[in-house]
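Human: Respectfully, please carefully check these tokens:
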Amino acid sequence: MSASSSYINSVYSAHSPRLRFLTSVSSPTSLVHLRLRSPSFSWIKRCALPPLKPHFRSNSTRASAAAGDRETLTSSSVSFRDKSPSDVRVLVVGSTGYIGKFVVRELVRRGFDVIAVARERSGIRGKKTKDETLAELQGSTVLFSDVTSLDRLDESLSGLDSPVDVVVSCLASRTGGVKDSWLIDYAATKNSFTAGRRCGAKHFVLLSAICVQKPLLEFQRAKLKFEAELAEEAARNTQVTYSIVRPTAFFKSLGGQVELVKDGKPYVMFGDGRLCACKPISEPDLAAFIADCVLDEDKINRILPIGGPGKALTPLEQGEMLFRLLGKEPNFLKVPIGIMDFAIGVLDFLVKIFPSLEDAAEFGKIGRYYAAESMLIWDLETGEYSAEKTPSYGTDTLEEFFEKVIREGMAGQELGEQTIF
């Protein structure tokens, strides 16, 4: 059995309440921070670590050569967790995404020294300009780079005046397409880890997803592969620690029908509306939890599933809540789940003839997955999803979110291109 397969099996086992979501590496390690102030000393030439194990090495000759020319970062005897936030440098990748921008704001609010990595044209379909990104990420130092290129990322970070302590990755494929999933959820995330380590980072906070418990989709497999490699690296190197955050559904993913129902359309759901459930979490609450992972020692080397406050809600209950808030009589359109199965079967057949339909087939599978699978902890003992075992965090409720969308619309909650409703 491969190391990655062993990790994935351990992840499933980790959902046993007896193991409390601990991975095989459970001991906190002393993390270090170094700040060199002499103007005659360029710290960046000393910030690279020795080459990582083979599966973390870059294929880039230039990046590898540059790393080999640098000296090893000298460790401080003081853990960054013992310092004030203003002396802790946090590198955030995926900083302009739906969750990432809130993570940057929360870290800035808490007083951390935040470096936000962003594309020159960010947002959905690259609509945001540099100036708009700078305004959105106020309080942080913004570096424009490309996380899909380790060379570009190394070059962008080479000008920093002090080492990085923590890397927070909020990277995620916007489409869920096959190639895009492996490019972003695996390769770009891995690049961010590697570049961060070369600049002294000792802790890696990874925004993953609770749905990787049952990996049937490409983006789930890509996320799990990096999770496995991250855990393996921490097992080999006691100077590396991690926190893997697996949230449930986001508010925006449940708000796509609010304006339609407000305009008199029926609320669409699959089956009887009870096929799945979730404990949705708001972006500020999730950002706060991710920020907690920067310093909290009880979150070291752990997989951390997290949901929002309150009970788990099925699509039927979400629809009933929406009609109540609108003062309308419930009007549901129930779609047989078998329709999606038929469509996926057709697309799977066609993709063998027309490979260009690969992503269309994957999008169908994504829709089918979210229509039938709960975003809750999968209990291995019962073989069912468990709302009771899914941790809750925060104060924002879905009802409050629906009320806001009814008043103001979905501005700022863009759902991207691949949506069902």
